[in-house]
Each structure stands twice: as C-alpha cells, then as structure tokens.
Amino acid sequence: MHPLAAYGWDQRWAAAFAPYAAQGLVPGRVVRVDRGRCDLVTADGLVRADTALVTPNDPLRVICTGDWAALETGGEPRYVQACLTRRTAIVRATSSQRSEGQILAANVDYAVIAVSLAAELDLGRIERFLALAWESGAQPLVVLTKADLVPDPVALSYLVQDVETAAPGVLVLPVSSRTGDGLDVLRATLSSGTSVLLGVSGTGKSTLANGLLGAEVMDVQTIREVDGKGRHTTTTRNLLALPGGGVLIDTPGLRGVGLWDAATGVGQAFSEIEEIATGCRFHDCAHESEPGCEVLRAIEAGELPVRRLQSYRKLLRENQRIVAKTDARLRAEIRRDWRLKSAEGRARWEAKRGGHSR
What does the domain layout of the chain look like in residue ranges? Predict the structure, then answer.
C-alpha cells in the first residue's frame, strides 16, 4: 500500500502525478496553508514548503488545504512546483466588493454541514450551505450537533424532519459529542474519503472533530448560553487523518456563505422544485403568476412549502447577481429583463388608472 493511501492517494492521483514523478518530484497533500507557506504530508512525513511558484493572480487557483502537490525532494526552502488538477472544490463568494471567489477546501468527497441544536434552526442558511456543497461536486450531509440538548426523542425527530424537508436526498444525522450518540454512524460514513466540516461559529465543529479523531486535537471555546454562539476556535484549515479511515478538513466558522457561480448547486439543493417545474407549461416559467405553472399548483395543493419556493428564488437571484458582476452578457440580459418588466408594470398601472377614470 502506498504510504499516502491513508490521505486519499489512489491510482488516479498516481496517474495524474506521473509526469511530475518523471521530473524527480514527489507527491504531497497539503494539510495546512499559512502566509505563503504550507505543510504537506509526504511519504517521508510532514514537511514545510514555499508556495511562491504556485501563487497565481486567480484566487481560485491558489494552493489550498486538500490539494495534491508536486514537491522538490530537497533544498531549503523547499518549493511546491505544481498542483494537480482538483477533482472538487468548495468555493464561496468573498465579502469584498471585488467579486472574487474564495476556495475553502480542495478534493473533498463529503461536505459535512454542522448545525447546532442549541439555537433555533435556520433552514434558509442550511439550504445555502447545501447549494455551496452540491456545486462543489462533493456529497453533502447535515449533522445536527448537540443533540443531547433535545432529550425528548419526539421533539428531536420533528427537528430532523424539518431539516430533511430542506435537504432532499441528503443524510441528516443528529449527533452528540458529549454522549457519543451518532458518532459511530458518522465515522462509518466518512471513512472512505476526504470530508470537510462547514458551519458558522458555535455549531460545535471543533468538538465534533475531536469526537471523530478520538483525541483533543482542536481547541474548543466556551459558547454563550444566551444565543448558542461562540468565537472562531479554528483559525486555519487543517487536514487530519481519521483513525477509522478517511481524512477530515476542519475549517474556521463562516460568518457569510455567499454563493459563487452556483446555479447547479442551487438546482440540486431544491431538486424537488426543479422536478416539479418540468411539468410547467412554459420552459422558462418563473413560478410567479404564469398560467399552467406546476410549481404554483403544488403550493396550492400543499405539496410544496411556500418557504422553499421563496428560498429558491432568493438564492437564484443572489447567484445571478454574483455571476453578472463578471459576465457582461448576463448583465445586459438582466438589464433588458428589468426594463421589460418595468414596462409591463407601467402598462398595467396605466391600464388600471385608466379603468378608474372611466
């Protein structure tokens, strides 16, 4: 077995690395990035290397935790010479005004969305994380942490059902790091690939990571009782091998979860809406007031919650705005659509005003 198999190395990575092996370079997986340098796990152990040679202007191509890299065999400092093409990548929009994406983790198989039961469920936020996860190419799952705070099994089952409604096709697993309930199922699920922990501060991600690792590896901060929130415990993205197999990337709590060109992810997060929409009379139905809209019929029949449609529209609009910032043609289409709708609105208003004047 290859020394890096525990960190996800397989025949596909070996084949992709072959040209670099011919140059005398060695493979390593990035376990941490910090100020122009990174730590990588190699066949010979953990090494630190400079990333100056692989620092492009494109923020989505900078080296990231989870990347597989080609590394010099010696020298001081050692340099990363290249990164292998990523299979998946978790990307969000930055909070800056420069319309840039930020890569959170690379080559991820499972996106674990941590949601605390110490606070009121925010289904809209869960849907946002799901869109982010689906767009990456990873398989999302939702972990409801601090399940011991909901001792009534009936109440807990209702909370799980609420989240399942907002996460069609996604495993929703209540877990308690304090009692250990649910951890065995989660460990088994994550044992065959690379997982990343996502969530806002105070959801118990670091405590969950410690539970999966079987050791106090990640620092844990006290959570405010008044709102269940806490400070950022994890300040860097760290990749760690799980004792039962698989690797885990723990990330800092995210204050904002902006979508970045995630139309496909939004569609998967709301798969039941898109499936229902295939029955609409018009292929470009906006599900607002069009005749023959199957989505509106489903809402009227109680088959689809209104909240789901509202959240779907909101995320699609947000994603469209983000994409339009870097796509001139889309900006023109949005402006044209806005002018058309404005003209239609004025025509209806003038017709109504004319009707009142008679």
Answer: 5-85, 90-250, 263-357
Angle (CA) 234-48-37 rounded to 5° is: 65
**How buried is residue 351: exposed, middle or buried, by Cβ count under 10 Å (0-12/13-18/19+)?**
exposed
Q: Where are the beta strands (DSSP E) in the chain?
A: 26-34, 37-42, 45-50, 68-71, 80-83, 89-93, 101-106, 110-116, 139-145, 171-174, 194-198, 238-241, 247-250
- What residues are paired with 46 via a beta bridge? 41
Question: Considering the domain 5-85 in this protein, what is its CATH number?
Answer: 2.40.50.140
The class (CATH top level) of 263-357 is mainly alpha
The correct answer on CATH 3.40.50.720 for the domain covering 90-250 is: no
- Eight-class DSSP state of 219: -
- Per-residue pLDDT tens digits for 154-199: 999 999 999 999 999 999 999 999 999 999 999 999 999 999 999 9
CA 339 to CA 333: how far, in whole Å?
Answer: 10
